[in-house]
TrEMBL record:
CC cofactor note: Binds 1 zinc ion per subunit.
GO MF, any single term: zinc ion binding
Cofactors demanded by this protein: Zn(2+)
Functional description taken from the UniProt entry: Catalyzes the deacetylation of 1D-myo-inositol 2-acetamido-2-deoxy-alpha-D-glucopyranoside (GlcNAc-Ins) in the mycothiol biosynthesis pathway.
Record protein name field: 1D-myo-inositol 2-acetamido-2-deoxy-alpha-D-glucopyranoside deacetylase
UniProt keyword annotations, A-Z: Hydrolase, Metal-binding, Zinc
Organism: Streptomyces mashuensis
Record: residues binding Zn(2+): 15, 18, 150
Length: 298
């Protein structure tokens, strides 16, 4: 364990592209600073809608080869972010994308929503005990916006953090390890509102995008006072945009804006925000942390 870098960050996401949209700039920043950045993606996003017409045949209702294609997009995105350690929970294809909440795919055996939480968490315990991250980043208990795979990623990440620390749990998966700090992704409401105001002023509607999304389409929006950490990642916003572009089947990027398959424009946030839910804040009382590793022994 002596050869591990001093600072180690683990991120748990549902589908390829979620990491770049939520944490791309944070990942690029810490990787550039020499921290170990590990991404665990829980599914291959097989049920995603495909934006480029030329790739429409990859979709689940046609060739059903989108998962393999998105693995390639993820690898390209990680190259843009300078992240070398990215893994699929349980290995590629272990858990399938469950589709949007209420879709018939939610009930399909083998989908992530149907996974036993403890069993899925054991795969992550093995990663936690190997990488020994001081900081874990995942979604809130609604998965940011209610997608079953995002909710399940939250449950699995939180459960794995608990089990990894339990001395009696599966010693074959490594020595017990307690993660010092856990954060949930979030975006302060005022930042979301400003972003949409900029987007409307820019008048990209009808040009690049079919319309403008609404602030409620943004995952993880919280009242400003609930945000506990604000990482100045503006220097890495270009890398974040490049990583998002690498997920070309899922995201169309236009300068400081982007759209998903609904073609509704939304702001691309250059700064990234977090809510500390476990561990002690490294900032003075009432202030936001500016570093996820604040107060952590590195
Ligand atoms: Zn997702």
């Amino acid at each position: 364990m002596t050869d591990l870098p001093g600072r180690r960050l683990l991120l748990v996401h549902a589908h390829p592209d979620d990491e770049s949209i939520n944490n791309g700039a944070t990942m690029a920043k810490y990787a550039a600073e020499g921290a170990q950045v590990t991404l665990v993606t829980c599914t291959l996003g097989e049920e995603g809608e495909v934006i480029p017409p030329g790739l429409a045949h990859l979709a689940a209702d046609r060739d059903d080869t989108l998962g393999a294609h998105r693995l390639g997009e993820l690898a390209a995105a990680m190259k843009e972010l300078g992240v070398t350690d990215h893994r699929i929970l349980g290995g590629p294809g272990r858990y399938r994308d469950s589709g949007m909440m209420g879709a018939p795919q939610n009930d399909r055996p083998g989908c992530f929503w149907q996974a036993d939480v403890d069993e899925a968490a054991a795969h992550l315990v093995e990663v936690i005990r190997e990488v020994r991250p001081q900081v874990l980043v995942t979604y809130d208990d609604n998965g940011g916006y209610g997608h079953p795979d995002h909710i399940q990623a939250h449950r699995v990440a939180m459960r794995a953090a608990e089990l990894a620390a339990e001395a009696a749990f599966r010693r074959d998966l490594g020595d017990p390890y307690d993660i010092a700090k856990i954060y949930w992704n979030c975006v302060p409401l005022s930042v979301v509102e400003d972003g949409f105001a900029r987007l409307r002023e820019a008048g990209r509607e009808g040009e690049m995008f079919r319309g403008v999304a609404s602030p409620s389409d943004v995952p993880g929006v919280v009242p400003d006072e609930d945000v506990t950490a604000e990482v100045d990642t503006t220097a890495h916003a270009g890398r974040k945009a490049a990583a998002m572009k690498a997920h070309a089947t899922q995201i169309a990027v236009d300068g400081p804006f982007f759209a998903l398959s609904n073609e509704l424009g939304q702001p691309l946030f250059a700064r990234e925000y977090y809510r500390l839910v476990r561990g002690r804040s490294g900032a003075p009382a009432g202030e936001r942390e500016t570093d996820l590793f604040a107060g952590v022994d590195a």
